[in-house]
Amino acid sequence: MMVPWLKEHFSNTVCRNGCSRCNSQATAIMTSVTSHQLPSCSCPTHSRSLNRTIPHPCARSASGHLSYLNIWLILCLFPRTCVSSPSKPNFLLILADDLGIGDVGCYGNDTIRTPNIDGLAKEGVRLNQHIAAAAVCTPSRAAFLTGRYPIRSGMASSTQQQVLFWNGCSGGLPPNETTFARILQQQGYSTALVGKWHMGVNCKTRRDHCHHPLNHGFDYFYGMPFTLLNECQGTDDPELAKSLQDKYWLYTQMITLAVFTLVIGKLANFFPVKWKIIICLAICGLLHFLSWFSSYGFTKYWNCILMRNHDITEQPMNLNRTAFNILKEAVTFIKRNKHRPFLLFVSLLHVHTPLTTTEKFQGRSRHGLYGDNVEEMDWMVGRLLNVIDKESLKNTTLIYFASDHGGSLEARRRNSQLGGWNGIYKGGKGMGGWEGGIRVPGIFKWSGVLPAGTVIDEPTSLMDIFPTVVHLAGGAVPQDRVIDGRTLLPLLRGSVRHSGHEFMFHYCGVFLHAVRWHQKDSGTVWKAHYATPVFQPEASGACFRRGICPCFGDGVTHHDPPLLFNLSQDPSEANPLSADTEPLFDTVMRRIRKAVEEHHKTLTPVPQQLSPYNNIWKPWLQPCCGTFPFCWCHEENNKADSIV
Ligand SMILES: [Ca+2]
Questions:
Q1: Whether residue 217 is found in the same domain as residue 265
Q2: Where would you find the membrane-spanning parts of this chain (predicted)?
């Protein structure tokens, strides 16, 4: 007789995609194993090498060509497949861009319709304290993929430029970093990234693609190597370093005016200035203009591009088709890989500005273009979930939905808000310490494995996806480096009460702005802020005059003693505690200080991927589908909407 946990183990591991007749066989295999009193071995359902050379045991035995004994022998002759992980599901990971936690129905929004995401939470597990490792795209995504604080990989910035600015810059996710996609690829998974990357392309030459997704464990890539920007649409103010561009433009005008004044003065004999000086000044002005306008003047061509694997398909991209193309590519990938283990990371371009929304969704929500864009995103999520259901992958696919960080409060056009809402939480995108910048939606669904309708308040991190996915795939996390994520499965299944996080370190660039302490014996979550951004205007709750809050310098206020909040009682961080009001103040601060000291000891110097040199446009690194600088091309893809 088989013990219940073994039966569950085998029904999870042996039976998967489309193997409706497999339960009895799983039992038979297990009986064979237990009768020989050998260690349990899980089915190699997700070993690519096995899939290629030996058909799935379920399929073979169904056709009657292979005995159970042979199956068992096959299983245990392949040591890599004899693991004790509970199961090896497919993974569909969906990451929204700049979506606020308050924008989703199941997190309390009742004015934007997100029925598909809400349904995901209803049938799965909703995390109430799901934390991004950074409050802007590039570092948050690097941490998500590697399970490590971005400061460890050099993906955190020490300058005002907190994210990568160009496809043609040399910074990016270092080739020696290991993504979960890389480990799953080694475990036999078919891996794909569809959507946004924003973690660099090249190091030294135009086509070395050292930072490219295909060099980081993805077998397939379709999407933007960069990120959406207003420049991609061309109808709004430029978004990329607007104040810097304004400054360069002002200098150009001043030099031009000076040259004209000197020429007129010379011709009218007002100034005894030499022609040589005037010509030198004119040349300097021209060089200055060319040096900045060659990059910022053509941002749409340099940054707004789409790629399929190593090839550029659209330069510049046609935004009107992009959402459909992304959906079509994701759906096609699922269908193409439904009979083999897959990891699909759908990194949505929604809901980042410029909020390109198809006509069908325009004017539908009560929150203008932003709300329309959120509703369109929810519809896309629904289409992906439908495909999983239709292809009978529901019970064998772990689905995850999150946002890379909080909504952007500063994204506005005149009086209309173009960024997200972070609910009751203070702050937003760009604010590495305040809760609104880093607390995001986090939902898991795995039918039959995770309890439906569960809500978990424990602190969890986007970095937890790394060890969770790796363990479920039967892989092992790298032992030669610090991994900051903690595996989530026991918490999600309800077999443990607490998450693996005692402390979380909240960075803004390379600057530690806040620390969270989950005091497990009391259940209290404390948070201490060492630095907070200076809001402009004061008390506005955001940095409207700067566009995004700075992480250092006169743009932040340092706190000594730190601002301490009891997040369990005061999640909006409205009432800072002091030694007078909180008896545990000194104890908590002492414990947090010690944790910071220990954390600092684990950091090692690494090359700075976002340094000024690594984050400037370099023409020789610019991806180009023609002969540089003549870069434009368009792949015909006009049947996209009919497919989805
Ligand atoms: Ca983002």
A1: no
A2: 248-265, 277-298
